[in-house]
Input
Amino acid sequence: MDAVGSFHGLHTLDDSRYELGLRYMCCVSMTVLIYDFLCTIKLEVQHIWPSKWTITKLLYLTARYAPFIDLPMTLYFYMAPNTSIPECHKIHMTLVWLTGIGVGAAQGILAVRTIALYDNSRRLMLYIGLSLLAVYSPLSVLLVLWACSVSFGPPAPGTGGCHLTDGNSIILATYGAIAFTETVLTGLSIWIGVKKYRTTGGHVITTFYRDGIFFYIYLLLLSCTNIAMSSSGPSTDLLASFQRVMHAVLSARLVLHLREAACEPSQALSRITSIRFGHRTAREPACEPSQALSRISSIRFSHQNREPAFEYP
Output
């Protein structure tokens, strides 16, 4: 989570160097976020903006743009001069909630993708929904308790901003919960892929699994690294803002790459049997770049003449 405090053992390091490292990592994270935005805004305008409002679009926009709010706030948290302790507490609590919403939206995208692979099974939808609720409801309470437990002190000489001096280790549960839910969702996706789609192939399915597996590997490594660093005491949150940004970047690309792949008639549509446009059904539709799936409500993929096997919202 972002703005995760450095607690037990922070003063075993040189505070000035440590807090300078935090600022550098926030700047690096902001650079990555802006660079990715500039690289993908064309795809977003083409494939997301004209499309109708769905749960996927809502999750996408939340995951995509939330860090543009909380990351500058994190920079202010670490760099603003003459920040009072009550103000630090308020900013810190706000960051905890904003980051939780952004990361939750990113995991929501992964959940929607997994459910789509199972033909939007209501049973699986209920299972995943209840599982996420069971994990994140108590976790939200623990995060609030952790945010209330942290204390602030004067910043290191030559630095400004808010200086966290103490807190409990509940925050470790956050990284563990993120890694656990992503492992479960990725495992479900791989299982149905091996069982159902290994003979189907196609550019869209390949893109679906390639991006999903890379998403899981990258973020699992970051979560494990943050757990290891948090357990050791010092340098606990050096990668927190970077993990926050990577959740936004990778989850957005999961959606953009899949919609881009579905819009390539020479490859991606080679195995598509039908695409529903609104209330009409068209065979062999042309994907106009200007429209960019703006009216596509679902894309179904099938193997030979069997019933549709995959629907992505």
In short: The beta strands are 151-153, 163-166, 272-277, 280-282, 296-301, 310-312. The two ends are 28 Å apart (CA to CA).
